[in-house]
Amino acid sequence: MSVLPFDQRDGFIWMDGALVPWQDAKLHVLSHGLHYASCCFEGERAYGGVIFKSREHSERFRNSANLLDFEIPYSVEEIGAAKALVVAKNGFDNCYVRPVAWRGSEMMAVAAQHATIHVAIACWDWPSMFDVETKMKGIKVDIAEYRRPDPLTAPCHSKAAGLYMICTISKHRAERRGYADALMLDWQGRVAECTGANILFTKDGAIHTPIADCFLNGITRQTVIGLARARGIEVIERRIMPEELASFEECFICGTGAEVTPVSEIGPYNFAPGAISRVLIEEYAKATQPQKAAA
Ligand code: PMP
Q1: Which of 103, 137, 154, 177 has the greatest number of beta carbons closer than 10 A?
Q2: Is the CB of 53 under 6 A from ligand 1?
Q3: C-alpha torsion angle, residues 36, 108, 43, 230 (rounded to 10)
Q4: Which fold has domain 6-125?
Q5: Each residue's pLDDT expressed in tens, for the chain with a length of 295 residues
Q6: For residue 263, which of 286, 280, 240, 285 has the smallest C-alpha distance?
Q7: Pocket of ligand 1, candidates 195, 198, 261: which has the most ligand atoms within 8 Å of its Cβ, to mutate?
């Protein structure tokens, strides 16, 4: 793999209130965020130079930090302006946008009440998969060993760096076994989500999806549910046990990165990407176009 490492690229990163040259956006190795996972982030996409649902992402960013017991020292409006500036300054039309916030170096123990909160925003090229026919082949998904934690054991609605530890382990295991991603069950053994995307199924023309009560209620998930309902497709949010997977027809995952991506297999269960996946791929692509989204 000859992908240029992320710390060796050129461009600008917004850091603690100002744009800095990309390779100067550094932090010290003794940072609380690194050692104790007091860190949260966002994942967004710009389409045609406009970040899709930027305000919702900024709000979630601030809320993620609050759930980790710290306050991002910028308002939703300031974060929105900084994100737009980063996209414009780096000259991207279509890109991925990554805000991140972390506790700094003033205190290096479990308690870090007085550590400074740092914020950075970067963006990079991450093309959408435009070819619908390739998408419609579907991806193969493993079943992870780790489960989404009980809400009493982790701040599950925060997009917290620490919550991705089990996602990375699960995704690595899936990739080693020839899968593109892994389905995680929750602490009660119910179907939850994939390592970086939510999951939906279809049966008899309706969409069935797990209740987002112990994992991220993705902004894409909420968008897709709205798009489906607007087209008269019934969406049922309920508890789904893994044994039920055999009874579903289509399956797709959705998230900022994945957008809407059909699934052909989850472990021993097979799905046939079909009409509902296709229509939602198309509707989501339309919704993310800036002119139409603003109309
Ligand atoms: N779950 C997890 C674990 C994720 O990382 C993501 C991507 N942020 C999602 C769900 C989907 O969230 P969104 O649609 O807001 O990108």
Answers
A1: 103
A2: no
A3: 60
A4: D-amino Acid Aminotransferase; Chain A, domain 1 (3.30.470)
A5: 578 999 999 999 999 999 999 999 999 999 999 999 999 999 999 999 999 999 999 999 999 999 999 999 999 999 999 999 999 999 999 999 999 999 999 999 999 999 999 999 999 999 887 789 999 999 999 999 999 999 999 999 999 999 999 999 999 999 999 999 999 999 999 999 999 999 999 999 999 999 999 999 999 999 999 999 999 999 999 999 999 999 999 999 999 999 999 999 999 999 999 999 999 999 999 999 986 445 4
A6: 280
A7: 198
Paired tokens of 228: 């489906």
Task: Name the catalytic one among 53, 135, 159, 171.
Answer: 159
CB within 8 A of 163, min separation 6: which ones? 149, 154, 155, 156
Residues of the chain with CATH 3.30.470.10: 6-125
Output the pTM of the full model. 0.97
Distance 194 CA to ligand 1 centre (A): 9
CA distances (Å), 191 to each of 132, 147, 149, in order?
26, 9, 12
Q: Where in the chain is the domain with CATH 3.20.10.10?
A: 132-293
**Residue whose CA lies nearest to ligand 1 atom number 3:** 196
